[in-house]
Amino acid sequence: MTYELFTAFALFAFVSSITPGPNNLMLLASGANFGFRRTVPHMLGIGIGFTLMIVLVGIGLAQIFTTYPMSHVILKIASTVYMFWLAWRIANAATPTEGQSAGTPMTFLQAAAFQWVNPKAWAMALTAVTIYAPEQTLAAIGLVAGIFGAINLPTVSFWTVLGQQMQRFLTNPARLNAFNWLMAGLLVLSLYPVLFG
C-alpha cells in the first residue's frame, strides 16, 4: 500500500468509523445507560467483529451477493427487522428508578454478530476491500482489516465516553427516557438509506 493510498484509507476508516451510525448510536445509549466499563465488551465486539468481517468479505463472501442476488434482499430484510428490535430495546431501557437488573448492555458476541446485519458495516467493509485492497491478496486484506481495526476501536470508544458524560444530565428518569427514545428514533432513521436508497 503506497503512502497516498494509506493516507486516503486511514481518512476513510476514521470518517466512516466516527460518524453516526447504528454502532455509534447504540454505544452512545449504552454509555449513558450503563457507563464506560460495562460497555467495553460491546466496544470490543464491534472492533473485533468488524475487523473479522473485513477479512471474510475480502476473502470472497461478497461474491455470494453477486452470485445469489436474493441473498442481498434477505440480508436487507433481516437487518431491518433486527434494527427495529434493537431500537425497541433501546427505547425501553431501564431508567434509574427501575433498577439496574432491568437492562443489560450488549455482550461481546452480540456486538460482533451485529456487524453482519449492520448496513453501514457492510458498506464500510465492501468499500474498504474493493477500493483499498483491489489486488485481493490475503496480505492486502489483512493490512486493510488491521488498519481499520486500529482506527475503529478508539473512534467507537469516543461515543461511549460521550454517552457516559451525558449520565450527569440524564439522572432524571424522564430525561433518560426521552434520550433513549431519541436514540431509538435515530437508529430507525439510520435505516433510511437502506430502505429508500
Question: Can you offer a commentary on this structure?
Answer:
The protein is mainly α. It has one domain. It contains nine helices and no strands. It has helices spanning 3-18, 22-61, 63-67, 69-91, 108-114, 119-132, 138-165, 173-189, 192-196. Helix 2 (22-61) crosses helix 6 (119-132). The longest helix is centred in the N-terminal third of the chain and has 40 residues, at 22-61. 38% of the residues are buried. Mean pLDDT is 83; it is low at 97-101.
**Number of helical regions:** 9
For the report, how would you describe the main beta sheet?
Answer: none
- Tell me the overall shape: globular
| Helix proportion range | over 70%
Number of structurally distinct domains: 1
Q: Write down the overall mean pLDDT.
A: 83
Low-pLDDT runs of 5+ residues are 97-101
Radius of gyration: 17 Å
Alpha-beta classification? mainly alpha
* Terminal residue distance: 32 Å
Along the chain, the helix and strand elements come as HHHHHHHHH
Describe the secondary-structure layout:
Blueprint lengths: L2 H16 L3 H40 L1 H5 L1 H23 L16 H7 L4 H14 L5 H28 L7 H17 L2 H5 L1
